[in-house]
Amino acid sequence: MTTTILVVEDDVAIRDMLCFSLKQMGYTCIAAGDGEQGLDCLKIQQPDLILLDWMLPGIDGIEFIRRLRANEFLANIPVIMLTAKGESEDLVKGLSVGADDYVNKPFSPPELGARIKAVLRRCNPTESDGKQTIECDKLVLDTKSHRVTVDGERIDLGPTEFRLLHFFMKNTDRAYSRGQLLDYVWGDTVYIEERTVDVHIRRLRKALEPSGYDNFVQTVRGVGYRFSAEM
Amino acid sequence: MTTTILVVEDDVAIRDMLCFSLKQMGYTCIAAGDGEQGLDCLKIQQPDLILLDWMLPGIDGIEFIRRLRANEFLANIPVIMLTAKGESEDLVKGLSVGADDYVNKPFSPPELGARIKAVLRRCNPTESDGKQTIECDKLVLDTKSHRVTVDGERIDLGPTEFRLLHFFMKNTDRAYSRGQLLDYVWGDTVYIEERTVDVHIRRLRKALEPSGYDNFVQTVRGVGYRFSAEM
DNA sequence: ACTAAATGTTACAGTTTTATAACAGTCAAT
DNA sequence: ATTGACTGTTATAAAACTGTAACATTTAGT
Fold first, then answer.
1. B56-94 tens-digit pLDDT
2. Fewer CB atoms inside 10 A, N or C side of chain B?
3. In what residue span(s) does the Response regulatory domain sit (chains A, B) (predicted)?
4. How far apart are CA A229 and CA A184, in angstroms?
5. Which residues of B125-158 are buried (b: 16+ CB within 10 A; e: fewer)?
6. Which residue is nearest to nucleotide D17 (CA to C1')?
């Protein structure tokens, strides 16, 4: 799950610096040079957060937020204002118009990062797309506590086996090739031998063995693997 | 049940006067000379209400409240602003930022007392006793007295370990990343190495060791830590 | 039954993650 | 100034995890 941030800032140097820092922090970044451009970007793609310079040519910060909040699809996107020092007047205006937080220029990347994290957290209190536990017969995977249990009996899994089981339990009764599993469970950026999947399947089976659920992990010869309650 | 009030006011005379009046009214009083000091106080002890002068050297009222609201433990503490006459501008700002009420200087102690009572009533509708202690098996954490005991046996914790345990006991059976713990326990405005969390986890475990509750603090490899009665 | 391909299993070396201890700076109380 | 408690950082040790390759077994087709 990548988090996308829209940066609206007219100063090229600052904009580039921002995008660079944000990417380093693992965010995906869209950049706009003025309010008009920024609003255009929003028509195409909805970011998870907006970094908004307050002093903009054309549409200024206040106006930008107004228009943003006026659109029901965009109204909930949190906004962090970037203000120069001494603009505390505007600051209050901004917060009252609907900005969620602000950062004074100049700021350090860590500080900005902290603010971004805080705002995202505040705005996504539900987190983790709802479902807290996934069940399959008596097998229970709890995403919050990061635990797998059968009848309350705990099953120990390494990080990779946990992700693998998690994926399987979210997508039961369906066969996946080793390549697909690598993409979905490991991520598509790494290059790993396909046979490695076999090894982790083995480890998962072994961990599930005492509970008898190891046969839920099924081999589909010539294709890959499948997780299913039915034999 | 004593009610504690934090006074943040830079003018010594007014501050002392306030503390004196408050004590007369039966409140316990903590005093801070500026915003920085005030925030430090909050790390150690959570008051039931904050009296906040609006004109402060360093961190001003807006910033103070902003930081306050950013911390989940402190977010609900009501704030009464102390404003000089003619600062009606700031008044609006303050209320929009999240102050709960205001009192114009100069004010009379009875007036202030009335406001305090009103705000406390408004903000603690459930109250009367509220949860003062959190328990986990025989482990008892008293939020007011800032004490942790097992079977009446006292356990000594440093401030950070106390907050960490406090957070854990409020959120058991759930894995948190080091980053999340930093956000929730340390606050999202500081930038601290993630490894530092490990060290404090270690200190917490060590402190709990003699009681045998150290294994409640569990490592979730690849993720972070979890506090749970179940192994 | 024989063969080739696919999968199961195991051991291991390298890497990553976590635990622990030691250190230095801060702050308040004395 | 000095002490002592506390905090954050860092270095090193220990533990856990990972990917690979080598070998074993099963499977399907002949």
1. 887 778 788 878 877 766 777 888 888 775 555 555 555
2. C
3. 4-120
4. 21
5. eeeeeeeeebebeebbbebeeeebbbeeeebebe
6. A158
CA triplet A75, A79, A80: central angle to 5 degrees? Answer: 170
Q: What are the tokens at B203?
A: 């200190």
**Calpha distance A111→A103 (Å, rounded):** 8
In angstroms, the CA A75 to CA A59 distance is: 17
Using DSSP bridges, classify how beta strands B49-53 and B4-8 pair: parallel, antiparallel or unpaired.
parallel
Please tell me which residue of chain A has the smallest CA distance to B72.
A122
Identify whether the C-beta of residue B82 lies closer than 8 Å to the C-beta of residue B53: yes
- The bases of strand D with some atom under 7 A from any protein CB are 5-11, 16-22, 27-28
Which pLDDT score, from 0 to 100, does residue B122 have? 62
- Strand C within 7 Å of which CB atoms in A 205-224? 205-206, 219-224
- The verdict on a CB contact (< 8 Å) between A159 and B93 is no
> Which chain C positions have some atom within 7 A of a protein CB?
6-11, 17-22, 28
φ and ψ at B136, to 5 degrees?
Answer: -145, 100
Q: Which domains does chain B have, with CATH numbers?
A: 4-123 (3.40.50.2300), 133-227 (1.10.10.10)
Q: Which residues of A touch B66 (CB under 8 A)?
A: 101
Tell me if chain A has a CB within 8 Å of the CB of B229: no
Give B110 CA → C2 C1' in Å.
102
ipTM rounded to 2 decimals: 0.68
Confidence of residue A66 (pLDDT cuts 50, 70, 90): confident
Helix (H) or strand (E) holding A227: strand A224-227
Render pLDDT for A176-221 as a digit per residue (tens, 0 to 9).
999 999 999 998 778 999 999 999 999 999 999 999 999 999 999 9
